[in-house]
Every structure is written in C-alpha cells, then in structure tokens.
Amino acid sequence: MDEDETRLTRLQREVHRLRISPSLRLGSHLTDAIRKPWRAPFLILTLPWMMLMIGFELLGWKSQPAAFSTNTSGRLSSKGNCVVMFPTNGVGFGHFTRLLAVAKRMKKLDPELEIIFFTTMPTLHLLKPYGIPAHHISGPKYFKGMSSEEWNALLEEELSVCFETHRPSMFLFDGAFPYRGMLRAIQGRNSIQKMWMRRGTFRKGSSIPVDSIEHFDAVIHPEDSVDTVVEDVEHNIEVMTCPPIVMLDSEELLSKEKARSRLGLPQDAIVVYVQLGAGEINDIESEIRLTIECLLEKPDVYVILGESLIGERIDVDLPRVQILRDYPNSMYFRGFDATVQAGGYNSFHETRTFGLPALFYPNLNTGMDDQLARCKVAEEEGWGIVLEIRNNKTIKQACKLLSSLVGINEVNESPNGANTLSENLLEVMSNAN
Q1: Are residues 180 and 299 in the same domain?
Q2: How many separate domains does the chain show?
Q3: CA distance 358 to 379
Q4: Which pLDDT does position 111 carry in this prediction?
Q5: DSSP bridge pairs for 341
Q6: CA-based Rg of the chain, rounded to a whole angstrom?
Q7: Which residue from 8, 82, 92, 196 puts its CA 20 to 30 A from 320's CA?
Q8: What is the pTM of this model?
Q9: Cα 46 to Cα 39: distance, rounded to the nearest angstrom
Q10: Which residues form the domain of 107?
Q11: Does 50 share its domain with 121?
Q12: In 3D, which of 298, 317, 294 has the Cα closest to residue 387?
C-alpha cells in the first residue's frame, strides 16, 4: 500500500469506529425519532432496549457490529513468510514464554521466516537474542484517564498498522481474553491465518465475548499434566493440541558447576530455588518467610529466591539467601537440588521436564486453572509434595519431606509441545501459500 492508500485506510477505520460507537448510535436513534415524529412515542421502549443491547455488546454477551474490512478492495495481501505473534501481559510470563518458545523453534526450522512480536509485555529486550523485532502497546491501566473503548481503538489502529507494514501470512494470539480492538483489527483479513493459543478449553459462563472464537481459523490448546475437560461451547473452527510447552530444551540448561559459579554458590551446598507469589518476604507470618526460615535451619542450605522481571523488587536481608532476577530462570535448574513453588502451568512443566524435586503450594482460588490437580501428578510420579494447608507446623513438616527427595532427579522425557507446534504451524503456512 502506498502512503495515500495507507492514510485513506486509517481514516476509513476511524470513521467506522465513530459509526459503531454507542454515543453515535444512540444519538442517531434519537435523531431518527425527531425526523420521523411517529417514532417518538416508541422511544420509551426502543431507547432502553437499544441501551441494553449495547451494554450486552460491551460485556461481550452479544456480537458487536461488523468491523471495517481492509480487504474489501484487495489492497492488502500477504507477503508470505511472516508471522505476527501477540502475547498478552498476564500476572507473569506465561503467554509471552509460550509464544517465544514456539517462535525460536520456528525460526530454527526456517531461518528465512520473519517473526514480529506485537505485545503488551514491557520486556522487549528478551527478544533481542533471537533477532525478533517487536511493536509494544502498554495496557489500558498505564494510560491516565483512558477508557477501555479508547484503548481498544488505539490497539486496533496500531495492530492494523503492524499488519499493513509487515503483511504476515499468520497471526498467533496467546491470551485468555481477546481484546475487542484486536478482533476488529483481524476481522476481514482473509490472507492471514489467524490462530488463538489458549490454555484450557472454552466453558459456558466464561467472560470471553460470544463472537470472539469465530474471528479465528483455529484454536490451539496446549495439553496439561492432567486431562483437559472437553469444551462445552460449540464452535466450528479447527482445534489443534500439542504437548505442554517448555521454553528451554535440556541442552540449553547450564551445567551444575556453571550455574553455581554464575550465582556465586558453593559447589557442595544444598540449593533450593523458591518462587512463591503470595506473601511479603518481610512479613514473618507469610508463607514465603516461614518457608525460607525452615529451609535455612540446615546450615548447608542456600536459598535462591526467584524475582519476576515485571514484578516489584524483593527486599530481603537473610543469610544464605540470594535473589535471582533473570529469564528464563529454568536455565539454572541443574544448579538447584530442589524447589518450592506454586502450581502455575509453565513453572510446573519446567520442573517436571528437568527433574527437579519440588514442594508445591497450589493456589486453590485460580478459577478454571486447577493447580491442585496439576500438582497432585507430581506426588503420583514420586518427585513432588503438595501442601494445601500452610502454617508454621505444616511447612516445617513439608520442608523435611522435601529434603528426603533431594537426589531424585527423574527427568521427564515427554516431547516439548513447542517443537511439535512449530512444525505444525509451518506446515499450515506452507499449505496456505
């Protein structure tokens, strides 16, 4: 597209956003009643009904008016060997890590493939080693006074510009909730294969917009350690599955000697990696503080405390406790003897894959993410302990049990879903071209 066509397309998108905005639609409804007075008596019924329907649209319970299509005049076509990946910004790195795991393997299989990240994650420097450029848009909470409607308009515009600039043949979204601006940006782009990677299945009563699934050509469900419940929301798009996705392969992990040297740890010490999101480290009654103090009762134990790159800094001054702020922290796993962590998807499968004895504190209030069932698999397989009720007494008992598992390093040889999925996506691209 040349500069004039690009400017025209952007203006058309803006006009379309204005036309479907709630304020203009309600205003037009009132104006029509003024122009045609016979409609005025019915406003007592039609206006509340229209407001109710618009409210349902904003909540995602009803389809919104069709989005502006950039392909109506055939101006935009794919240039072929390019993928745009959109990981959302959750409380951690789950979405970002899964897509980066797939991206690095796709580029390894096809060095000529161009991969572009479009993301709300602020950690763009992590893409540099893989030669992946990125477009960044901050989440709505970072813009002062910006409404959800305004932010989605911004998202639609920036993602549309990304598509028009790079002309990808595939779009891969990883997130639990599809943004309305994203859906408007991808609608009508028939030259792009649109994929939605989503952990967990679609269940009735979930908060996703009712018309969101139909914007995609396929949905990808990474498998879990436990059987996935069958979807009970009907849709007609293709469903793809893959084994659990892990960022690193075993040969990418640092050796025990190198990992400990890099972290300044004694080679003969017992090292426990702790990453728990709940509780303040300086609150002596918190789970994380109780756990660390129990571990440190043994004089040869050192604790490595994982700190998220997108979280607040941890302020701790305890003997034999060090903070690790790196990515991915799993590269150091051979330098650890055991771990204490929550039951999140990514960290659980990294721990399982690389054979690290674990004590799990599953979050029992995570909605559809059944961390308890996932962590129970570690107990069944003999390399983990699950602690549901955490207090000073139970944590001490669990830490003693964990010490008995040190030395049990049963590496799980199951396939990495990132490898199988990257092959499948390249095949989809090849067939589409």
Answers
A1: no
A2: 3
A3: 9
A4: 94
A5: 275, 360
A6: 25
A7: 92
A8: 0.81
A9: 9
A10: 82-245+416-432
A11: no
A12: 294
Asked whether residue 234 falls in the same domain as residue 378, the answer is: no
* Residue range 110-169, pLDDT digits in tens: 999 999 999 999 999 999 999 999 999 998 888 998 988 889 989 999 999 999 899 999
Residues 43 and 115 grouped into a single domain: no
* Short-list 236, 242, 204, CA closest to 221: 242
Q: Does residue 317 share a domain with residue 280?
A: yes
Residues 137 and 165 in one domain: yes
Cβ-based burial of 432 (10 A; exposed 0-12, middle 13-18, buried ≥19): middle
CATH of residue 322: 3.40.50.2000
Is 71 within the bounds of a domain?
A: no
Closest among 327, 356, 361, 326 to 343, alpha carbons compared: 361
74 falls within a domain: no
Q: Are residues 350 and 374 in the same domain?
A: yes
pLDDT digit string, tens, across residues 269-317: 999 999 986 556 656 668 889 999 999 999 999 999 998 888 888 888 8
Question: 250 to each of 128, 255, 411, how far by Cα in Å?
Answer: 22, 10, 10
Same domain, 232 and 290: no
Q: What is the pLDDT of residue 311?
A: 81
> Residue 94: in which H helix or E strand, if any?
helix 94-109
Element holding 261 (H helix, E strand): helix 256-263
Residue 2 in domain = no
Tell me how crowded residue 15 is: count the other CB atoms within 10 A of its CB. 11
CB 354 within 8 A of CB 411: yes
Of 191, 167, 211, the C-alpha closest to 64 is 211
In whole angstroms, give the CA distance from residue 280 to residue 276: 10
User: Would 181 be classed as within a structural domain?
Assistant: yes
CB-based contact 347:359 (threshold 8 Å): no
CB atoms within 10 A of CB 238: 12
Neighbours of 418 (CB within 10 A): 27
Neighbours of 234 (CB within 10 A): 8
